[in-house]
Structure to design on (207 residues):
């Protein structure tokens, strides 16, 4: 009888523990996660390999996309270096490949060769992407990002652009956006440690 009572108490304690655990708030990503994920409008862009890129090239992998340009003096090379450092950890969390698209917002100066030289320096997982403004602007805007277009006669200029990073899931959908932190006296860049933690939570929820 005593053994039966102990067993019943143990079962009750186990059930109570499960109920309490399930009622506890689950960790949530700090990134803006789209629920449900949002489809991307059809696009045609150029990769730094010279190949044409379409929506199909974003499927079957996790892709981190951000706007930049090869003449950028600060945010772009910093973000690229940070992503290269974070990529092994990001890749270890996912069963699918993890890639980075650097979307050039300076098509006037960023040729295929320039993008190839720039991106291959950071690794084979990096793809430089370009298009004329007519195709580029709607694509960037559809990601929830922005950039400025310089006057046609300007030759030495800076391009203002978003410093956030967009995550596209293996279905080719916009899944999340990691916003940059803005600290006085510092470059507005994405916190890579937080992005890694968020990515792990996003993958768990996606799977």
């Amino acid at each position: 009888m005593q053994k039966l009572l102990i067993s019943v108490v143990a079962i009750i304690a186990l059930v109570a523990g499960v109920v309490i655990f399930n009622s506890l708030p689950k960790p949530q990503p700090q990134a803006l996660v789209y629920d449900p994920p949002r489809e991307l409008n059809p696009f045609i862009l150029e990769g730094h390999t010279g190949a044409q890129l379409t929506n199909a090239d974003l499927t079957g992998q996790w892709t981190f996309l951000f706007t930049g340009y090869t003449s950028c003096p600060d945010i772009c090379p910093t973000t690229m270096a940070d992503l290269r450092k974070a990529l092994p950890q990001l890749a270890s969390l996912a069963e699918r490949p993890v890639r980075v698209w650097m979307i050039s917002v300076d098509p006037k100066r960023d040729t295929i060769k320039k993008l190839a030289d720039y991106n291959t320096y950071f690794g084979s997982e990096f793809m430089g992407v370009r298009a004329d403004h007519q195709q580029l602007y709607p694509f960037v805007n559809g990601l929830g990002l922005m950039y400025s277009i310089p006057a046609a006669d300007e030759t030495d200029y800076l391009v203002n652009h978003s410093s956030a990073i967009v995550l596209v899931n293996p279905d080719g959908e916009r899944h999340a956006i990691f916003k940059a932190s803005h600290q006085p006296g510092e470059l507005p860049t994405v916190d890579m440690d937080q992005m890694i933690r968020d990515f792990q939570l996003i993958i768990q929820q996606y799977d």
Notes: Residues 15-24 have pLDDT under 50 and may be disordered. The chain has five helices and eight strands. The helical segments are 2-23, 75-93, 112-122, 133-142, 192-206.
